[in-house]
Amino acid sequence: MPSSAPPTAPVRDSVAKVNDELAVGSDLEFQRRWWKFERAIWIFFTLLIVLDVLGVFGRGPLAKARLRAADGSAEVTYERIERHKTPSVLTAHFGPSAIQDGKVRLWVSDDLVKELGNQRVSPQPESSRLERGGILYTFPAGAPPLAVQFSLEPSSIGRASISLEVQGRDRLSANIFVMP
Amino acid sequence: MAAVFRALFGYCFLVFMMRIAGRRPGKQITPFEFLMVFFMGGLTLTSMVADDHSFINAAVQILSVAAAHYAITALKLKSPRFGRIVDGTPLVLFEHGRWRTESMKAMRLTDEDVLAMVRDQGLERLDQIDYAVLERNGEISIVPSARAK
Nearest 5°: phi and psi at A129? Predict the structure, then answer.
């Protein structure tokens, strides 16, 4: 039994020609519009690179932030713009008024663990317990200057609000944005 | 689900970047440009894979990229306008003894790039060709003049 013939179509001379001889399908007007678009995109890319170097997308000078308690008990340095799954460090510095009975008791909101993925506290606290929707760490303390570091690795994208408070002192709050 | 989006975004972003960075693959590609292609691919890969090194993640991402590629190819066939956006149109670089400088400059091509393709065709001089055309795949086609034929 003969097989059916493959479908065919007549050749249409629809391709634009150059000098009425070379069928090349060029569209210079479209290309001119595209080149204009390309120039605009390169300006935009350059702007993105400059903003990134400045730290607008994290890990640069504009991303670094500092919070100081009015009573001088604590000062926190952190990155106001973090990057998803990228390590960073939040440091809490303590003044003499933070020390009570040779200990510093620091309460942090649980967003530090949940949203910002706190991996490690250095130095190790003497104890930690759940309290008021956060964690209360107790550190043995000597003479100032004293500092505690939290190693962060944000696990979710978007805005996170954190609060820190030396027990019985002013609370420090900050909004952190985690970039994808 | 995130893996699928990462793969689709990575693929579309690379397609766009390659379109913006210039149409010079194929025979015109230099070692310097190979470097860019591998770098871009490698850097995209790190964010696509993220911290999920499982086989299922790799398989799902490969399927996602293949599906995106299929969709773009199908759209190109359906819409010539979309095809022009993704691939551009062929561009005449040289015609009857004259360079088209606007196209050469915009595509960041030099006389040397065209001459290399002329030699590749077994020809020696520009007066042996009528046209040089930058094709959509980045290759430069040479149309020999009647004398050279």
Answer: -145, 155
